[in-house]
Amino acid sequence: MSLEELIEETLVWKLYRDGCWGAGHHSQTPLFTKGFPSHVSGKLVERVAENLLKQGILYKRASGHEWQWSLNPVKKTEIEAIVERRSKRLGL
C-alpha cells in the first residue's frame, strides 16, 4: 500500500469519524497535520486531498481564515469503501 493511499484513508476516516458530511466540516490545518507521522509533509497531504476533491469525494469551501473540508454525501458508497478498506487493514 502506498503512502498516498494511507493518507487518503486517514483523511476520509477523520472526516467520517466526526460526521463531517456536507455542512459539517474540519479546518484545513488540523485536518492536514494531526494524526500524521512527522515525516509526512503537509504538501503531500494537501495534494492527496486535492485529488479526492477532483474525484468528488471531498468538498472544500472558503472560510474567514482557512479552507473547510467535508465529505460529499453523494459519494457515500465510495467513502464507506475507503473506511472499510482502512478497517480491514487495521484489523478492526
What does this structure look like?
The chain has 92 residues and is mainly α. It has one domain: Arc Repressor Mutant, subunit A. It is built from four helices and three strands, in the order H-E-H-H-E-E-H. The chain has helices at 3-17, 28-33, 42-54, 76-90, and strands at residues 26-27, 58-61, 68-71. A three-stranded antiparallel sheet has the order 1-3-2. The longest helix has 15 residues, at 3-17.
Please indicate the count of domains: 1
Mean pLDDT: 91
Kindly provide the name of the CATH class.
Mainly Alpha
**Annotation field: number of helices:** 4
CATH architecture: Orthogonal Bundle
Tell me the distance between the termini.
18 Å
Model regions low in confidence, pLDDT < 50 over at least 5 residues: none
CATH H-level name... which superfamily? Winged helix-like DNA-binding domain superfamily/Winged helix DNA-binding domain
Count of individual beta strands: 3
Features:
single chain, 92 residues, mainly alpha
What's the helix and strand layout?
Elements: H1 3-17, E1 26-27, H2 28-33, H3 42-54, E2 58-61, E3 68-71, H4 76-90
Antiparallel strand pairs: 1-3, 2-3
At a glance:
With 92 residues, this protein is mainly α. It is built from four helices and three strands; from the N terminus they run H-E-H-H-E-E-H.
